[in-house]
Design brief:
The complex is a heterodimer of chains A (224) and B (646). Chain A is an alpha/beta fold and 224 residues long. Chain A has two domains: 115 residues, Rossmann fold (3-Layer(aba) Sandwich), CATH 3.40.50; 96 residues, Orthogonal Bundle (Arc Repressor Mutant, subunit A), CATH 1.10.10.10. In chain A, 41% of the residues lie in helices and 23% in strands. Chain A is built from eight helices and twelve strands. In chain A, the strands form three sheets. In chain A, strands 2-1-3-4-5 form a five-stranded parallel beta sheet, sandwiched between helices. In chain A, β7 and β8 form a beta hairpin. The longest helix of chain A has 14 residues. Chain B has two domains: 278 residues, 2-Layer Sandwich (Beta-Lactamase), CATH 3.30.450.20; 207 residues, 2-Layer Sandwich (Heat Shock Protein 90). In chain B, α3 packs antiparallel against α4 and α5 runs antiparallel to α8. In chain B, the strands form three sheets. Chain B has a six-stranded antiparallel beta sheet with strand order 1-4-5-6-2-3, sandwiched between helices. A five-stranded mixed beta sheet of chain B has the order 8-10-11-13-12. A two-stranded antiparallel ribbon of chain B has the order 7-9. Chain B has 646 residues and is of the alpha+beta class. In chain B, β12 and β13 form a beta hairpin. Classes of the chains: A alpha/beta (224), B alpha+beta (646). At the A-B interface, α1 and α5 of A face α9 and β7 of B.
Chain lengths: 224, 646
């Protein structure tokens, strides 16, 4: 089955070009050129992944991202022309899983898309625990006591990666490789922002984390 | 202390002796001194010289000595405990006052005025008090002398006219006569001491040896005065002295002369109490003190008021300009009236207004520039992305094309790449120019970053056939830095070195000291002269415009590296010599709040000798080798490779 990808970009030439590349690699692209309609198209097309331009007419890409994220856990990859820290961080904080800075190569884009679309590979039944959190890997659920905690797939992968090796300190580069699938070290801000978002969902007090601990100057590790 | 001035008992001598009156007035201040309260000091000295006949004076002196000792001990103890207990407080007070002195013009002015006023009042007061004391004393002295002269004459007349021969009547006569000298009525006007002169033949009818008023003995008469009286003829002398009256000691003047009675010469001293004069003087002095204190306070208040009026606008201006400097641009001075201060305020406000305008304008400009850069970035990048993707699709499919289209696809692909890197460098530079580049510093391992860069540059180095040698200490080197920027700087330096290294090894050396880390990137290629080394960080500058560039750099790489370094408060320097290659050194502070004192690595390589000289050393392999070569440098090393000389 072809994975369906919603491309939200107002630049028709670029959208078409992205469509050519995606089709070439066996994806099924759906297009939307207006931020205001993005949500409707998203609902009707039910894509497996969203490629979202940050600068859109009608509605800001960040706002679109936030609304999509509010009703779905579908992976979102931002296309951004701005590499300024604040814009990237704002995009990631609004719910995007990853970003591809323009101008990108086709292979780069496809690699990002593939990494986010990694088939929910048949995971062996496995239950992990860190701090007071229980993770059912096969069932893709996380709970504290009897309370379910809703995480996006990316956040779930991040938590599982940390929980599987609670004795290990993960550098940001290592997490980028394991969770995001980057071969070469990329922007470590991705890790920082997502760890913050993960914490805001699973920590009792995000200011004093107990589940995902920071190891100063090195990276992160799971709490015991 | 004791002075005896010869005063002629004959009127002629008194009238006509200018030198004598001069002497008398010359002596007066000294004579007046005891009036001012030094009589207590004098007492022990007097007691010591007292003949054994006056034991109670010695006793009193001893008591005083002991009392003084006890008081002194108590004072010392009090001072010591006070110092121990209040020292921190005092020190704090002292520091606070010192600070006040340094920082407050008003405080300084008022304090200085007070000091000066007090000094001048002390001088004037001392002079006035001295003058008054002198006058009072002189007046009393003149009076005492004339009274004495009259009384001595009376006594002598009485004695001369006496027709007494038996002992009792002689004693009575002497007593009565001397009592009459003391004065009529209940108030004693003067006291006397009546003493037979020693060392004279004792007549048979000398029944009276000495007489004195109550409480007085001959010891109150200063020895100098006695000596003067004894040695002179019928002349009158005076001296200051201290007399016991009741329980207190009072200052007095003793005036002495000689009288003869029944063939015996007696010394007769009349002693005048100066207590009333002393009291008058004390009163005058206390009035002076009080007046001086009030005046000093008034002057202080006036100085405070005046300086406050002058200084408060100035300190207001200082406060306002501090706020302005801190960025509160809307801050203004309060302007009242039309005086100099008001003019200062008005021009200050004018300055602040134009400053605010300029700054706001600049801020707007910078904001506009920033938005422009951002917009250009977006507007250019989107079509470029499309072009790049299309170019790559064509490039990937080039094998299906005929040779012309194939070559076109390749050219398109390569030039789009080049265009892309040029654009991103331009945008990066304009971001620096707009001042929107921010440092995202975190402590990270520099060695890790360098290894990563070298790893990334390996394919290019292999293409050029040069090795990249990494000379670094073991372990890690954690520096507070923006790893993305440092990565970019080092990648630039290393690729640059590889590009210009002519296939010879490139050495990357790292070292650290307490404040900084240094990375040097050394190549042994064609090198550059110092003038070129100075320009190497200029934008779009090329050492040799004719030189074929194969890596397609934008010409902005080193400028961006320089900007990135400045953002880290670091140093980026270049060294080069024709034929000996080049060396680039990056020095970074360990912490962003720290400063670099010295770079831990050398900018000018140690392995360089003057071009053309024998012993030019080939590329070093590592640090150790470099050190060995350094120690051998003194000896002529075998010349290697003519390519090292230009």
């Amino acid at each position: 089955m072809k994975a369906r990808i919603l491309v939200v970009d107002d630049d028709e030439a670029l959208a078409e070009m992205i469509g050519i590349v995606l089709r070439n690699d066996g994806f099924e692209p759906v297009f939307c050129a207006d931020g205001a309609q993005a949500l409707d198209v998203f609902r009707s097309s039910r894509p497996d992944l969203v490629l979202l331009d940050l600068m859109l007419p009608g509605m800001d890409g960040i706002e679109v991202c936030r609304q999509v994220r509010a009703e779905s856990d579908v992976p979102i990859v931002m296309l951004t022309a701005k590499s300024d820290t604040s814009d990237v961080v704002r995009g990631l904080e609004s719910g995007a899983d990853d970003y591809v800075p323009k101008p990108f190569k086709p292979a780069e884009l496809v690699a990002r898309v593939r990494a986010r679309l990694r088939p929910g590979d048949q995971k062996a039944p496995e239950t992990l625990r860190i701090a007071d959190i229980t993770i059912d890997v096969a069932g893709h659920t996380v709970s504290r006591g009897s309370d379910r905690i809703s995480l996006t797939p990316l956040e779930f992968d991040l938590l599982v990666a940390l929980a599987r090796k609670p004795w290990q300190v993960f550098t940001r580069e290592l997490l980028l490789e394991q969770v995001w699938g980057y071969r070469h070290a990329a922007d470590t801000r991705l890790v920082n922002v997502h760890v913050q978002r993960l914490r805001s969902k699973i920590e009792q007090d995000p200011e004093a984390p107990e589940v995902v601990l920071t190891v100063r100057g090195v990276g992160y590790k799971a709490g015991v | 202390m004791v002075s005896a001035t010869k005063q002629g008992s004959d009127p002629a001598a008194q009238d006509g002796g200018p030198d004598r009156s001069l002497a008398a007035s010359g002596e007066a201040p000294e004579a007046g001194a005891p009036l001012n309260g030094s009589d207590k000091e004098r007492q022990p000295g007097l007691a010591e010289s007292t003949p054994p006949g006056m034991p109670h004076m010695v006793f009193r002196a001893r008591i005083w000595q002991r009392r003084a000792l006890i008081v002194a001990l108590r004072v010392v103890r009090l001072v010591r405990t006070g110092v121990v207990r209040f020292l921190p407080g005092l020190r704090y007070l002292g520091r606070a006052l010192q600070k006040r002195w340094r920082r407050s013009l008003q405080f300084r002015t008022v304090l200085t005025t007070l000091m000066l006023a007090m000094t001048s009042f002390a001088v004037v007061g001392a002079y006035l008090s001295n003058q008054i004391a002198n006058n009072l004393f002189q007046e009393r002295l003149t009076q005492a002398e004339s009274e004495t002269r009259y009384n001595v004459k009376q006594v002598q007349d009485t004695f001369d006219g006496a027709q007494v021969t038996d002992q009792s009547s002689v004693i009575t006569l002497v007593s009565d006569t001397l009592s009459a000298v003391e004065g009529r009525g209940s108030v004693i006007q003067r006291r006397y001491v009546f003493e037979a002169m020693p060392n004279q033949t004792k007549p048979r009818n000398r029944w009276v040896e000495s007489r004195a008023s109550d409480q007085l003995t001959v010891s109150v008469i200063p020895p100098d005065l006695r000596k003067a009286v004894q040695e002179s003829g019928k002349e009158q002398f005076w001296a200051s002295t201290v007399i016991p009256v009741g329980t207190e000691d009072r200052p007095g003047i003793a005036v002495g002369n000689k009288v003869t009675f029944n063939g015996t010469v007696y010394e007769l001293y009349l002693i005048y109490d100066l207590n009333t004069a002393q009291q008058t003087l004390n009163e005058i002095q206390s009035v002076l003190w009080a007046g001086g204190a009030v005046l000093v306070l008034l002057i202080g208040a006036v100085a405070w008021y005046v300086t406050r009026n002058v200084v408060s606008p100035v300190s207001h201006a200082a406060m306002v300009s501090e706020k302005l400097a801190a960025g509160q641009l809307q801050e203004r001075m309060v302007v009242r009236g039309e005086d100099e201060v008001a003019r200062l305020g008005a021009s200050f406000n004018h300055m602040a207004a134009s400053l605010q305008e300029q700054i706001t304008q600049l801020a707007t400009l910078s904001q506009m520039q920033q938005r422009f850069v951002s917009d250009v970035s977006h507007e250019l990048r989107t079509p470029l992305t499309t072009v790049r993707m299309a170019a790559e699709v064509l490039y990937d499919a080039r094998d299906d094309f005929d040779p012309i289209n194939k070559r076109s696809a390749e050219l398109l692909y390569n030039q789009v790449e080049r265009f892309q890197s040029l654009l991103s460098d331009l945008l990066e530079i304009s971001r620096f120019d707009a001042g929107v580049a921010v440092l995202d510093a975190e402590p990270e391992d520099l060695l890790h970053v360098i290894s990563h860069v070298i790893e990334g540059a390996a394919p290019v180095a292999a293409e050029y056939g040069s090795d990249i040698v990494f000379a670094a200490p073991e372990g890690s080197m954690v520096v507070e830095m923006d790893a993305r920027r440092i990565d970019r700087i080092l990648r630039n330096l290393i690729l640059n070195a590889v590009e210009h290294g002519e296939g010879k090894p490139v050495t990357v050396t790292v070292a650290a000291n307490e404040t900084a880390v240094g990375v040097s990137v050394r190549d042994h290629g064609i090198g550059m002269d110092p003038a070129e080394a100075a320009r190497v960080f200029d934008r779009f500058w090329r050492a040799d415009p004719a030189r074929a560039r194969t890596t397609g750099g934008s010409g902005l790489g080193l400028s961006i590296a320089m900007e990135d370094t400045k953002l880290h408060h670091g140093w980026l320097q270049a060294w080069g010599r024709k034929g000996s290659g080049a060396n680039f050194r990056l020095t970074l502070p360990l912490r962003q709040d720290g400063a670099i004192t010295e770079s831990p690595v050398q900018l000018e390589p140690r392995d360089v000798t003057i071009p053309g000289a024998p012993g030019n050393i080939p590329a070093e392999q590592d640090n150790k080798n470099m050190l060995v070569l350094q120690t051998d440098a003194a000896k002529p090393a075998p010349s290697r490779g003519p390519e090292e000389t230009p």
